[in-house]
Write a structure and sequence with these properties.
Elements (H helix, E strand, L loop, with lengths): L1 E3 L13 H9 L6 E6 L8 E6 L5 E5 L2 E9 L11 H7 L34 E5 L2 E8 L14 H7 L2 H8 L5 E11 L9 E11 L2 E10 L4 E11 L7
Antiparallel strand pairs: 1-3, 2-5, 2-8, 3-4, 4-5, 6-7, 7-9, 8-11, 9-10, 10-11
């Protein structure tokens, strides 16, 4: 089958938002947890081929070029206690999204401040500390445009919400995470549209240029809905070819 990542779903300029693209593959997986590896930047407004390989693996290709692949996995991650929805909102003014003059990736589908309500996620995660754990957090209320007929929110939007806060956990510490390389995702419960949620991100560690982050999504009562572990790389000074 063929899919196309429209320009609406850009992350960094001129390439697909990593979390959204990973979500397109994850929602087609039958595994409880799925690992998605982004091999190349995703071109926008171009027909791409999505292939089922074997053992539950998927590949997204442009001709002979492998762009993204997914496979069943498991997610082992220590998830910190979440802040309250009020505390998450209070952290937002410190978000890299809202830094002057334009914020980090101001047109990003996940965190861009210049995107209109309803057209993008607009998750502005800012720094705070909960029980001694440094993290970033922000509020997210998925609007009607993200709702399925039953009021649930599809995997592509959930995984997209768990993308940028992982980078922000490093950016707020002065480390320029910019390109998502791999994300392992597991959803534990349904995410509902028109309901308040808390999104958090935190540093796990690093290995050379690889930066490891955790992200999680909670409902307003603090129940865990989804989580991810991501590998990030510093943003290159020139866009990758």
């Amino acid at each position: 089958m063929h899919i196309e990542v429209g320009s609406r779903f850009a992350g960094p300029p001129a390439m697909g938002h990593g979390g959204y693209v990973a979500g397109l593959l994850a929602e087609r997986s039958v595994a409880a947890a799925v690992q998605v590896t982004l091999r190349r930047p995703i071109p926008l407004d171009v027909a791409l081929e999505l292939l089922e390989v074997d053992d539950g693996r998927l590949q997204l290709r442009r001709g002979d070029e492998l762009l993204v692949e997914s496979e069943p996995s498991s997610l082992e991650i220590d998830i910190p206690s979440p802040p309250s929805i009020q505390a998450a909102r209070s952290a937002e003014p410190g978000s890299p999204s809202l830094a002057e003059p334009r914020g980090v990736h101001p047109t990003c589908f996940g965190c861009g401040r210049l995107r209109d309500e309803g057209d993008a996620l607009r998750i502005f995660a800012g720094p705070l500390e909960v029980d001694g754990q440094a993290m970033v957090a922000g509020a997210w209320r998925p609007g009607p445009v993200l709702a399925e007929p039953d009021g649930g929110v599809a995997t592509r939007w959930v995984l997209a919400a768990l993308d940028c806060p992982g980078a922000f956990a490093f950016i707020t510490g002065g480390i320029g995470a910019g390109l998502l390389g791999r994300i392992t995702f597991e959803q534990h419960a349904e995410v509902r549209a028109d309901a308040d949620h808390v999104v958090v991100g935190w540093q796990i560690g690093n290995e050379g240029r690889k930066l490891f982050a955790g992200t999680a999504l909670f409902d307003a009562a603090g129940s865990l809905l989804a989580a991810a572990r991501a590998t990030w790389f510093p943003m290159p000074t020139t866009p990758p070819g």
